[in-house]
Amino acid sequence: MEKLHIPVLLPEVIKSLSPRPDEKYLDLTAGYGGHAKSILDVTLNYKDSVLVDRDDFAIEHLKAKFPQTNIMHMDFYSAVLQLIECGKTFDIILADFGVSSPQLDLKDRGFSFKNEGPLDMRMDRRQKLTASDVVNKYSERELAEIFVKYGEEKAGRAKMLAREIVTHRPITTTRELADLIASKSKYSHTHPATKVFQAIRIVVNDELEEIEKTLPLLPKLLNKNGRLGLITFHSLEDRLVKDYFKEATSHGEESELTLKTKKPIVAEQQELVINPRARSAKLRVVVRN
């Protein structure tokens, strides 16, 4: 599984978060432990560090890879609330908001339009809502609204695609949905279903709301001079992080945080050759005052 998942911006994460021996580390989206391994290899503080993920495949992998470390199987908002309640604090916090490579590549997870699989898209398979529920039960108006809001489709195209989906229901597989969208689209360099799949995935996993609720809580978990790094993969996520960091660092000496990255850090060309999925990744870092 490790070969299937390449952590994005790894050298940049290590450089900007500057881990040191004995520091406490919190990874809110630990996935398959790529970032965590490199940071824990430096801190060597396994017992005071915490790795969080809501994907059961990732949790099994993390438990085997980091047996001495506290592993939390839950969404990162719930984890943050629990850690605050327990009075925990950390020197380094990292969250990578992207979908992991195994989630995309395992066809039975239903995340990718490139593979034939069930319409699932759940990061946490314990939850009830699936992509099939959204595609087959949401009204035409609801579908059009989420395609605009979370997929950033133009209103006219969103309404057309919503109408086509409703007309052709039930739709049972990722390929079926992707082919339907492609049949109603002009040629483009990116797959015409990209934005619709993004919108459905965001709704299924409540992704943006979870980020928005979590951001203001993170300084409570940071020690003085602690570093917080957040990696985003599309403009909706990045806007939330950018706006929060701007607000939290704009109060002069009263600011809780100081911005460490004036501009987001992006992947070098060398990384893009090895890991094309890093092309949209942006890393922003702040320091606790």
Give a structural overview.
The chain has 289 residues and is an alpha/beta fold. It folds into two domains: 2-102 and 209-288, Rossmann fold (3-Layer(aba) Sandwich); 107-207, Orthogonal Bundle (DNA polymerase, domain 1), CATH 1.10.150. It has helices spanning 10-17, 34-43, 56-65, 76-85, 101-105, 131-137, 140-149, 155-168, 174-183, 194-205, 207-214, 235-248, 269-274; strands at 25-27, 50-53, 70-73, 90-96, 222-232, 257-259, 282-288. Strands 3-2-1-4-5-7-6 form a seven-stranded mixed β-sheet, sandwiched between helices. The longest helix is centred in the middle third of the chain and has 14 residues, at 155-168. The radius of gyration is 19 Å and the shape is globular.
Tell me the distance between the termini: 38 Å
Number of helices: 13
CATH architecture of the largest domain: 3-Layer(aba) Sandwich
Structural class label: alpha/beta
CATH fold-type name of the largest domain: Rossmann fold
Described by the principal axes of the CA atoms, the overall outline is: globular
Largest sheet properties: 7 strands, mixed
- In the CATH hierarchy, what is the superfamily of the largest domain? Vaccinia Virus protein VP39
Number of domains: 2
Helices, strands, pairings?
Elements: H1 10-17, E1 25-27, H2 34-43, E2 50-53, H3 56-65, E3 70-73, H4 76-85, E4 90-96, H5 101-105, H6 131-137, H7 140-149, H8 155-168, H9 174-183, H10 194-205, H11 207-214, E5 222-232, H12 235-248, E6 257-259, H13 269-274, E7 282-288
Parallel strand pairs: 1-2, 1-4, 2-3, 4-5
Antiparallel strand pairs: 5-7, 6-7
Helix pairs in contact: 7-8, 7-10
